[in-house]
Amino acid sequence: MDTLTDPKMIGEVALIAIGAIMLGYFVYKIWPKRFNPVLFGFLATFGAVGGLAYMGNAAAAVALVLIVGLSVVLGLAALVM
Questions:
Q1: 39 to each of 3, 9, 58, how far by Cα in Å?
Q2: ∠ CA(66), CA(71), CA(73), 5° rounding?
Q3: Helices (H), the chain
Q4: Please, which pLDDT band fits residue 4 given cuts at 50, 70 and 90?
């Protein structure tokens, strides 16, 4: 857990997460509406971060866990509301 308190690691996680969110938003905006842009925006985000984590980037692995956790929380919030 020492890596989670390292400022460089936190910065990498933030930059990867911001880049992945921007990628997902861009895919959402350019994808045709009839082909479910929300799904493909999420898949682009998840695929980019998953690819970085697979290549051995530890910060991307932390960002991947955060993205999955945020997806679960948002899904549960959608069910409750």
A1: 32, 29, 26
A2: 95
A3: 7-30, 37-54, 58-80
A4: confident
| Structure-block tokens of residue 41 | 């925006």
Question: What's this model's pTM, rounded to 2 decimal places?
Answer: 0.84
Q: Which two tokens stand for residue 38?
A: 């929300």
Q: Residue 27 corresponds to which tokens in the numbers above?
A: 């895919």
Q: Give the pLDDT confidence of 16-56 residue by residue, as tens digits.
A: 999 999 999 999 999 999 999 999 999 999 999 999 999 99
Q: How far apart are CA 81 and CA 65, in angstroms?
A: 24
Q: How far is CA 73 from CA 7, 9, 42, 76, in A?
A: 26, 24, 15, 5
